[in-house]
Design a protein that fits this description.
The complex is a heterodimer of chains A (363) and B (289). Chain A has 363 residues and is of the alpha/beta class. Chain A contains 13 helices and 15 strands. In chain A, the strands form five sheets. Chain A has a seven-stranded parallel sheet, sandwiched between helices. In chain A, strands 1-15 form a two-stranded antiparallel ribbon. Chain A has a two-stranded parallel sheet with strand order 8-11. With 289 residues, chain B is α/β, with parallel strands linked by helices. The chains are: A alpha/beta (363), B alpha/beta (289).
């Protein structure tokens, strides 16, 4: 991050004696909880999740007090804990067979958020709420402007389950803001996360040798580097940044461009077929494609990050830089069409043509 | 091999291969609207130039009115059944400003939403600098100092019948004027003649249009009767005139005043209509022997 070092001491220290983080058995939640626990300004960090964190995250979470409760039952927990700040990261981006498929995902995202916010409304000492949202909040329509600012309203209800959940979640946060105007509420609309350490639906998608795309579409994509997203999330807790912010790496990669840079081959599939397949199978686990992805791969999604830069004084790594970092990681190895090979092929063809022309030259 | 000077073919082959390698490796830049200057300059414009010079023998007047830097809104008449006039204007403006300029300028076209609904066409439009005709996009482009091209007649203009040629249609809701007023960009009225004759439309097959999701399915003297051959545009003579810039600084703050917006839109429309009449006198026949 090209950052202006923020002067933390200029603001009066907020009361962060008890911070509750939801969704700690996932990558983002665990990372944020661990960073908060390591910050001296933060007192006690409590992580809530319905499941037990996997072993690779468990070590990170050693300094965090873990409470195993799914979001629908955690409401009671939150009011008992006397939380000063709640960081809601328990938002699931795709259905998981282990988590009850799409029904379980919606339960977790929508009902879970509703219950959590209801509990927050009752918590007397609460003065801060940070919610992880997504740029999927802008929906997907052919009549969308090219670049979404935070004020852009979605024109059409998206087809994907995650995008619908995000719209519901943001609706509940709006209601919460109205009812509890004293609580500093920050909503972060994150672009898809990427980086050498990231392991998401999208990174698995780019890791395949042949990558399915929608025929006749080359959507504009944006990513945000995981480290930058973590930094923004962390600062949203320890500093005061009320409002809704787009969090994305400036600049754009088109889908085909990203696939090419990853040294992969695009495989265009008719949209009708892809939507039908995604709708039927709900999730083509091998391709990691659902209607959320199909919508993204038809319409693309680019957001304006001026507000983020003004408020936080930082600009995340550009989309191209974040993607390049992902390519350096283990997820993107074994590329069939690397750029060195292409450059070598170009030189070989040029040398061959030069030889042939030289031979044909009279005299 | 050792001392031979590289000739034009060496350079062309090297440039072509390098372009191919860049495309395959994703080694190019795309802006937030999806504009791909590498593809536009090395593939799209060269193809369009063949039509611009060889086929339509286009003459561009008033190139001096094009600003070398800073934003401007080019407002032109629309015709020709397919939006060939927009593409020719883009090439003309780009080439007129190419000589001696430090950096290339591209005309960023605003298109109707059906363009962005259709696969393939939507991507070609975005990659060659187009975007959806809507306030946020127009203003964002103008604020970043781009040249923006708009055709306020929209489908009413491009889809009119041959007998209505060179009659300007109604100018939408004047949204383009509001965008110029909000950003302080000057408006350049542009008259284009020649496009009306490329596909003289005499009819429409609505059921087919509905089936294909098009606004109309054109019937011309050659299409669809001659099949793909009928898709070759007739070689009419084209003239493009860039008019004097209309300074919008004096109108600042009136973007919300609908009457002022209509007023200015009418003024622009009148200027373009006069320009068309003048150009038609200069070019007595569309297909000079």
């Amino acid at each position: 991050m090209s950052s202006v070092d923020p002067d933390y001491r200029s603001a009066p220290p907020a009361d962060l004696s008890v911070v509750v983080v939801t969704g700690v058995s996932r990558f983002l939640g665990a990372q944020v909880a661990a960073r908060l626990a390591a910050d001296l300004r933060v007192g006690h960090v409590i992580g809530i999740d319905g499941g037990r964190p996997p072993p690779e995250l468990a070590r990170l979470l050693e300094p965090v007090e873990l409470i195993e409760a799914d979001l629908t039952t955690c409401a009671k927990v939150v009011s008992k804990l006397d939380a000063r700040a709640v960081v809601h990261l328990g938002v699931v981006t795709g259905p998981e067979p282990a988590g009850g498929g799409r029904a379980g995902m919606k339960e977790q995202n929508v009902i879970g958020t509703m219950q959590l916010l209801a509990a927050c409304q009752r918590a007397p000492g609460l003065h801060k709420l940070v919610v992880r949202s997504s740029t999927a909040a802008y929906g997907a329509s052919f009549r969308d402007p090219a670049v979404f600012t935070e004020e852009t309203e979605p024109r059409a209800t998206p087809r994907g389950g995650f995008a619908r959940d995000i719209l519901d979640i943001e609706g509940y946060v709006r209601g919460f803001r109205r009812r509890c105007p004293d609580v500093i509420a920050t909503v972060l609309r994150l672009a898809p996360l990427i980086g050498s350490a990231a392991n998401t639906t999208l990174t698995r998608y780019f890791a395949q040798p042949v990558v399915p795309t929608v025929f006749g579409r080359d959507p504009r994509l944006q990513f945000v580097h995981v480290d930058d997203a973590l930094e923004i999330l962390h600062r949203s807790v320890v500093e005061d940044h009320p409002g809704t912010f787009n969090v994305a790496g400036p600049g754009v990669l088109t889908l085909n461009q990203a696939i090419r840079r990853a040294g992969r081959l695009p495989l265009p599939v008719a949209e009708f077929g892809l939507s039908t397949a995604a709708g039927l199978a709900k999730r083509l686990s091998r391709w990691g494609l659902g209607l959320d992805q199909v919508d993204l791969f038809v319409h693309g999604r680019v957001v304006d990050t001026v507000r983020l830069t003004k408020e936080y004084g930082v600009t995340p790594r550009t989309t191209a830089e974040a993607f390049a970092d992902f390519l350096r990681g283990p997820g993107a190895r074994h590329a069939p069409l690397r750029r060195e090979r292409l450059a070598a092929a170009e030189r070989a063809v040029l040398a061959g043509i030069a030889r042939v022309r030289e031979r044909r030259r009279p005299g | 091999m050792t001392t031979r000077e590289p000739d034009i073919w060496d350079r062309r082959i090297a440039a072509g291969l390098s372009f191919l390698r860049r495309r395959l490796a994703g080694d190019y830049e795309v802006d937030e609207f999806g504009f791909d200057p590498d593809l536009t300059e090395h593939a799209v414009y060269p193809l369009l130039r063949v039509l611009y010079h060889g086929w339509f023998r286009t003459e561009l007047r008033g190139a001096a009115h094009l600003p070398r830097f800073g934003p401007a809104l080019l407002v032109a008449n629309h015709s020709g059944t397919v939006a060939m006039d927009a593409l020719m204007l883009a090439v003309g403006v780009h080439d007129a400003l190419r000589n001696g300029a430090a950096s290339r300028r591209h005309l960023r076209l605003l298109g109707a939403d059906f363009v962005f609904r259709a696969p393939v066409m939507s991507e070609l439009a975005r990659k060659s600098g187009g975007t959806l005709a809507c306030h946020p996009d127009a203003e964002r482009l103008l604020r970043s100092g781009e040249l923006v091209g708009v055709f306020p007649e929209g489908l009413k203009g491009v889809g009119k019948l041959y007998r209505d040629r060179y009659k300007l249609q109604r100018f939408g809701r004047g949204g383009f004027v509001a965008a110029a007023l909000r950003t302080g960009a000057p408006i350049l009225p542009v008259g284009i003649i020649g496009a009306e004759e490329i596909y003289p439309r005499i009819g429409d097959i609505q059921p087919l249009a509905r089936l294909l999701g098009l606004p109309y399915f054109p019937v011309t003297p050659t299409f669809p009767w001659l099949g793909p051959l009928g898709m070759i545009p007739l070689p009419s003579k084209w003239l493009i005139e860039i008019g004097e810039p209309i300074d919008t600084a004096g109108w600042a703050g009136q973007a919300e005043d609908q009457l002022a917006v209509f007023d200015l839109a009418d003024q622009v429309r009148e200027t373009i209509q006069q320009s068309l009449h003048r150009l038609l006198l200069e070019r007595p026949t569309a297909f000079p022997a």
